[in-house]
Amino acid sequence: MILGIETSCDETAAAVVADDGEILSNVVASQADLHARFGGVVPEIASRRHLELIAPVLEEALDGRDVDAVAVTTRPGLIGALLVGVSAAKALAWARRLPLHAVDHLHGHVASLYLRPLDLQPPFTCLLASGGHTMLLDVRERGGYRVLGTTLDDAAGEAFDKGARLLGLGYPGGRELDLLAHRGDPRAYAFPVARVPGLDFSFSGLKTALLYRVRDLPPAELAARRADLAASYQRAIVRALVERVEAAGAGTVAVVGGVAANSELRASLPGAVFAPLALCTDNAAMVASAARYVEAVPYPQYLSLDARATAA
Prior knowledge:
This protein is α/β, with parallel strands linked by helices.
C-alpha cells in the first residue's frame, strides 16, 4: 500500500492506494472558503494552512494502516505549499524506514485514470486542463507521456477563474461560472477562439475580450446579461479545448484536471473518458497512483529531496 500526499496548491490531501489501484482512503481538506475573500489563492496563507491541516489529514487517511511506501508531489506548484507536503513525506518515510516516491503533479492527474474501477489502459490522448496547466498529451505507457501541445499564456482553469472574477462571481470561479452559464444563451456573444500554430492553446485574448464587454456595459445591463456572458465565454473556452482534441486526430481521448468537471466540456466530448469527478481536482489518490510507475528513492537518500515550483 502507498500513502500519497498532495499539497501543491490549496488542498491538503492524503490517500492510501493499494498496488492494484484500489483507493482505500482519500482525504481532501480544501481551503476554498479561506481564500474566497481574496478571489484566489494567497500562497503564504495556503502554506500556513497546510501546516495546520497536514497532521490531522494524514491521521485520517492512514486510520491505523501500515503502508509500504510514501509518495508526495514535489513539483510543480506553490513552493511554500509543496515544501509542507515534502517535509511531512520525508519525515514519515524516514521514521518508518520506507522508500519515497517523488511525483510530478501533472503525471498525477494522468494517473488518476489508472485507479479502479476506471483503470484506463494506454495508448490514449489526454487533455489535461486545470487552474495552472492546459496540455494535450500522447500517453503510450503509464510511466510518462509526450507533450503534443500546451498553453502559450493562461491555462483554461485560470481563464475560467478570471472570467468569473470579471463577472463578479464567487470563488472557486470555474464552478460558479459553470452554474451561471446554465441560465444563459451561449450564442449571445461571439467571443474569439485563438488560432495558434500546432496543438497549442491561448486564452489571454479571450479573457481580454470579456473584460472589454464587461467594461462597456452599464451596471444594470451587465446584471441582466451576466448569464449570457458566462454562457458565451464558457462556450469559447470549451470550443478551444475541443478543437485541439479533434485536431490531434486521436483514437481514445481522456480528460483530467479541474476543468474536466465542467459540464459543457463533458457534453462536448461525449466519447471521451473523463476522470471521476472526485479525482478531477487536486487529490492524493492520483499521487499514490502515479507512484506505482515512478522509481522509488531508497531510504535515506530522499532526505536531500527538494520541491520545485516549475515542471522542468
